[in-house]
Write a structure and sequence with these properties.
Shape: elongated
Order of helices and strands: HEEEEHEHEEEEEEHEHEH
Strand order of the largest sheet: 5-6-7-8-9
Distance between the termini: 46 Å
Number of domains: 2
Helix content: 25-40%
Structural class: alpha+beta
Number of helices: 6
Length: 263
């Protein structure tokens, strides 16, 4: 049998090896716990873990913000009995379910905040510095306080999150808002004959001016291009879909072109 102190120390040290510093008490009750990671913004709880003691010590931990997650087990996998393997797989599925449930709840809460902000915003000033710099009209953009804001939606038009653009061009997304598979609709979506999918709003606005009959949506970043494109193909199997990726040739690996090609 393992000593509980050794188990907790091993679990904490494994967290530390992945860059996750948790100074809080670790509760081994098989329930997902959130905690503040040293170095993150104050009051944030991006760290999470689930730890089991019964049967054989095992668990999972991760960083919500970076999407990093790691499995941990005190006993080497090669020493697992068939019964332990079955229980271990069950635990992993249970943890995945808990994780997804919490994430879904937070995304729904973020969606409510996004809609509240959107409904209290005003039409964007065409003279807004970012728009002038990029030589684009506002399209769907609005203004909230000192920011341009853009709705991040699904294919049914539901707003899940917002992108905020400052006058200097810096951008941020609404905290905990859903992004995967969602996008910014530049000029509306309605069973398009031709669909252009790009990364950012400015590129999309430029494309919409050049191709006025096409539907243009922005996937927000290169990592979301494939997910949005696949969802669009499933939604509109007969539409012509063109991926308008950024050419990041000056960045190692050229992420725009790499992600657009599905690699």
């Amino acid at each position: 049998m393992y000593n509980i102190t050794d188990i907790l120390n091993s679990f904490r040290n494994t967290m530390l090896q992945t860059g996750i510093i948790n100074d809080n008490e670790i509760i081994p009750d098989g329930v997902l716990h959130r905690f503040h990671i040293n170095g993150d913004k104050r009051a944030s709880k991006n760290g999470w873990y689930v730890l089991y003691l019964d049967g054989f010590p095992s668990g999972v931990f991760g960083n919500w913000k970076s999407s990093i997650s790691s499995k941990w087990h005190m006993k080497p996998l090669s020493h697992f009995t068939q019964k332990e393997w079955i229980e271990y797989r069950r635990r992993i599925e249970e943890i995945r379910y808990q994780h997804n449930q919490i994430k879904m709840q937070e995304q729904q809460q973020a969606a409510r905040r996004a809609n509240l902000i959107w409904n209290n915003s005003k039409s964007a000033n065409p003279e807004y510095p970012y728009l002038l710099k990029k030589h684009i009209p506002p399209f769907i953009a609005r203004q909230y306080k000192s920011f341009l804001i853009l709705p991040i939606t699904d294919f049914d038009g539901k707003i899940w999150s917002l992108q905020f653009i400052h006058s200097d061009g810096s951008k941020k997304l609404l905290s905990k808002g859903a992004k995967k598979g969602r996008f910014i609709s530049i000029n509306g979506i309605s069973n398009p004959v031709q669909l252009l999918i790009c990364e950012g709003f400015a590129t999309g606005a430029t494309l919409a001016q050049l191709h006025s009959t096409a539907c243009v949506i922005a996937a927000i970043d290169a990592g979301n291009l494939e997910t949005v494109a696949v969802a669009a193909r499933n939604r509109w199997p007969k539409s012509k879909i063109i991926i308008c990726a950024d050419d990041d040739r000056l960045i190692p690996g050229n992420p725009g072109q790499t992600k657009a090609s599905g690699n």
